[in-house]
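(Fold this chain)
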Amino acid sequence: MPVCAFALLSGFFPLNEAAPAHARGGDWRFDRLRRAQPLGRSTVGTIFSWYQRDAGHLSGEVIELLDGMLTINPAHRVTMQQVLDHPWITGQQPLAGSLKGWWGAATRWAGRSVGATCTAVANTT
Protein backbone atom coordinates (compact mmCIF):
# COMPACT_ATOMS: atom_id res chain seq x y z
CA MET A 1 0.00 0.00 0.00
CA PRO A 2 2.70 2.61 0.82
CA VAL A 3 4.49 2.10 -2.49
CA CYS A 4 1.22 2.41 -4.40
CA ALA A 5 0.33 5.59 -2.49
CA PHE A 6 3.76 7.03 -3.28
CA ALA A 7 3.38 6.18 -6.98
CA LEU A 8 -0.12 7.63 -7.19
CA LEU A 9 0.97 10.89 -5.58
CA SER A 10 4.34 11.28 -7.28
CA GLY A 11 3.91 9.63 -10.68
CA PHE A 12 6.76 7.12 -10.28
CA PHE A 13 7.69 4.17 -8.09
CA PRO A 14 10.22 4.73 -5.29
CA LEU A 15 12.18 1.48 -5.73
CA ASN A 16 12.32 -1.37 -8.20
CA GLU A 17 12.85 -4.05 -5.58
CA ALA A 18 12.98 -3.85 -1.80
CA ALA A 19 16.19 -5.86 -1.58
CA PRO A 20 19.82 -4.96 -0.93
CA ALA A 21 21.86 -4.14 -4.03
CA HIS A 22 24.09 -7.18 -3.58
CA ALA A 23 21.07 -9.52 -3.66
CA ARG A 24 19.98 -10.89 -7.02
CA GLY A 25 17.65 -8.35 -8.55
CA GLY A 26 18.38 -5.92 -5.73
CA ASP A 27 18.17 -2.16 -6.01
CA TRP A 28 21.00 0.25 -5.06
CA ARG A 29 18.37 2.72 -3.85
CA PHE A 30 17.21 0.39 -1.10
CA ASP A 31 20.68 0.44 0.51
CA ARG A 32 20.87 4.22 0.30
CA LEU A 33 17.41 4.60 1.77
CA ARG A 34 18.25 2.17 4.56
CA ARG A 35 21.25 4.38 5.44
CA ALA A 36 19.34 7.68 5.13
CA GLN A 37 16.37 6.87 7.37
CA PRO A 38 18.29 6.44 10.68
CA LEU A 39 19.99 9.78 9.98
CA GLY A 40 16.60 11.49 10.12
CA ARG A 41 16.24 12.15 6.42
CA SER A 42 12.81 12.23 4.84
CA THR A 43 12.19 9.12 2.77
CA VAL A 44 10.22 11.13 0.23
CA GLY A 45 12.93 13.81 0.08
CA THR A 46 15.62 11.19 -0.34
CA ILE A 47 13.80 9.46 -3.19
CA PHE A 48 12.98 12.72 -4.99
CA SER A 49 16.63 13.81 -4.70
CA TRP A 50 17.82 10.75 -6.65
CA TYR A 51 15.85 11.93 -9.67
CA GLN A 52 16.36 15.66 -9.08
CA ARG A 53 12.60 16.07 -8.96
CA ASP A 54 10.61 18.70 -7.11
CA ALA A 55 8.24 17.45 -4.39
CA GLY A 56 6.55 20.86 -4.12
CA HIS A 57 3.20 19.41 -5.16
CA LEU A 58 3.15 17.25 -2.01
CA SER A 59 1.95 18.78 1.26
CA GLY A 60 3.91 18.42 4.47
CA GLU A 61 1.11 16.23 5.81
CA VAL A 62 1.31 13.70 2.98
CA ILE A 63 5.12 13.69 3.03
CA GLU A 64 5.02 12.86 6.72
CA LEU A 65 2.44 10.14 6.11
CA LEU A 66 4.47 8.58 3.28
CA ASP A 67 7.68 8.82 5.35
CA GLY A 68 5.98 6.90 8.15
CA MET A 69 4.51 4.30 5.82
CA LEU A 70 7.75 3.75 3.86
CA THR A 71 9.94 3.29 6.94
CA ILE A 72 12.07 0.18 6.40
CA ASN A 73 12.42 -0.80 10.06
CA PRO A 74 9.05 -2.28 11.08
CA ALA A 75 9.62 -1.24 14.71
CA HIS A 76 9.56 2.41 13.56
CA ARG A 77 6.94 2.09 10.82
CA VAL A 78 3.49 3.57 11.45
CA THR A 79 0.59 1.25 12.13
CA MET A 80 -2.53 1.00 10.02
CA GLN A 81 -4.48 2.72 12.81
CA GLN A 82 -2.00 5.61 12.77
CA VAL A 83 -2.45 5.88 9.01
CA LEU A 84 -6.24 5.95 9.37
CA ASP A 85 -6.00 8.60 12.11
CA HIS A 86 -3.53 10.81 10.21
CA PRO A 87 -4.77 14.35 9.40
CA TRP A 88 -4.12 13.88 5.68
CA ILE A 89 -6.51 10.91 5.68
CA THR A 90 -9.12 12.35 8.05
CA GLY A 91 -9.04 15.85 6.60
CA GLN A 92 -8.72 17.33 10.08
CA GLN A 93 -6.19 19.98 10.94
CA PRO A 94 -3.29 18.80 13.10
CA LEU A 95 -3.17 20.12 16.64
CA ALA A 96 -1.16 23.30 17.16
CA GLY A 97 -0.57 23.54 13.40
CA SER A 98 2.33 21.10 13.49
CA LEU A 99 2.67 17.45 12.57
CA LYS A 100 6.06 17.08 14.19
CA GLY A 101 5.87 14.15 16.54
CA TRP A 102 2.40 13.06 15.35
CA TRP A 103 3.55 9.44 15.41
CA GLY A 104 5.83 9.81 18.42
CA ALA A 105 8.98 7.71 18.13
CA ALA A 106 7.80 6.26 14.84
CA THR A 107 8.42 9.53 13.00
CA ARG A 108 11.78 10.89 13.93
CA TRP A 109 11.71 12.39 10.43
CA ALA A 110 8.53 14.44 10.85
CA GLY A 111 8.83 18.14 10.25
CA ARG A 112 11.94 17.94 8.07
CA SER A 113 12.01 20.09 4.98
CA VAL A 114 11.96 18.08 1.77
CA GLY A 115 14.07 20.70 0.00
CA ALA A 116 16.70 20.66 2.74
CA THR A 117 16.65 16.88 2.77
CA CYS A 118 17.13 16.72 -0.99
CA THR A 119 20.12 19.03 -0.75
CA ALA A 120 21.65 17.10 2.14
CA VAL A 121 21.15 13.76 0.45
CA ALA A 122 22.55 14.98 -2.85
CA ASN A 123 25.67 16.12 -1.02
CA THR A 124 26.22 12.83 0.85
CA THR A 125 25.17 10.05 -1.55
Notes: The chain has one domain: 2-124. The mean pLDDT is 76.
